[in-house]
Write a structure and sequence with these properties.
With 151 residues, this protein is mostly helical. The chain contains six helices and three strands. Strand 2 and strand 3 form a beta hairpin. Helix 2 crosses helix 4. It is globular.
């Protein structure tokens, strides 16, 4: 198995997992991206979220509606500007959805030495960087460069 095969297997498994989460909660993959972003960066306005995930503010309203119906986020007045509304995660809700995955991944990580974990972390960080760059290129309409020896 080479890097392409590992990448394809990983990608397929991640997509399948998120489809199952979405089916269980009634949310889309974009909704899940938004949820992860809010959980990581903290409360944000619809406009801020729209910029982060490259959607219109109107589309983000639909995202927020679905996440709110699923019990994962709430809308609240912005403490710094009461005219604005911010979207924030409901404490514990995000973790409940991914608790099984977190526990299983903790078991996987425990199988490796600290040095091996550093190598794996390096691979993950570099893979995420590649994915972000390829996403940027595709979103900009650019053609990603082909791998040497590939049509």
């Amino acid at each position: 198995m080479d890097g392409r095969d590992f990448g394809r297997e990983l990608s397929t498994a991640v997509v399948a997992f998120h489809e199952a989460v979405g089916a269980r909660l009634g949310v889309t993959a974009v909704d899940q991206r938004a949820l992860a972003l809010i959980a990581g960066k903290g409360p944000m306005s619809a406009g801020e979220l729209a910029k982060e995930i490259n959607l219109t503010p109107g589309a983000v309203t639909g995202v927020a509606d679905r996440l709110e119906r699923a019990g994962l986020v709430r809308r609240e007045p912005d403490p710094g500007d009461r005219r604005r509304v911010v979207i924030s995660t409901i404490p514990g809700a995000f973790g409940q959805v991914f608790a099984g995955l977190s526990a299983a991944m903790d078991e996987v990580v425990a199988r490796y030495s600290p040095q091996e974990q550093q190598v794996i972390a390096d691979w993950v960080v570099r893979t995420v960087d590649v994915l972000k760059e390829q996403t940027r290129l595709l979103s900009a309409g650019d053609t990603p460069p082909r791998a040497p020896g590939r049509p």
